[in-house]
Design brief:
With 109 residues, this protein is an alpha+beta fold. It has 2 domains: 42 residues, no CATH class; 50 residues. The chain has 3 helices and 3 strands; from the N terminus they run αβββαα. Helix 2 packs antiparallel against helix 3. The two termini are 17 Å apart. Bound molecules: zinc ion. Zinc ion (ZN) binds next to helix 2. Zinc ion binds next to helix 2.
């Protein structure tokens, strides 16, 4: 995996506030992203990886919420026609499958 160090935005929004908050920047680097590691309250961590994980989770939560909305919408408007109903249910099934995959991804973090 290629090392992707912090972007300018991440330096500005993640690293700078952290330094100002009194966290200590170590001269070790994160093996995953190449960002300098920080130490605060005796805990050594990579603020960039933590920040990215949080963002990924937030993004996935947004997607999952939209899928849930769609699922509810579909469940509330089941057609009488059997052919249409079949299509409807197959879409619902796919959405449920996606939601389950997202849940697994979320749990894996
Ligand atoms: Zn990192």
């Amino acid at each position: 995996m290629a090392l992707k160090g912090p972007t300018e935005e991440e330096i500005r929004t993640v690293l700078m506030p952290l330094m100002l908050s009194g966290a200590k920047m170590l001269d070790k680097h994160c093996p995953r992203c190449g960002s300098p590691l920080f130490e605060k309250d005796g805990r050594v961590f990579c603020p960039i990886c933590e920040h990215r994980a949080r963002q990924r989770k937030a993004k996935m939560k947004g997607i999952a919420e939209r899928l849930m909305e769609k699922l509810t919408e579909l469940a509330n408007s089941l057609p009488e026609d059997l052919t249409e109903l079949e299509k409807h249910l197959s879409v619902m099934e796919k959405i449920i499958g996606l939601l389950e995959r997202y849940k697994k991804l979320e749990g894996g973090e």
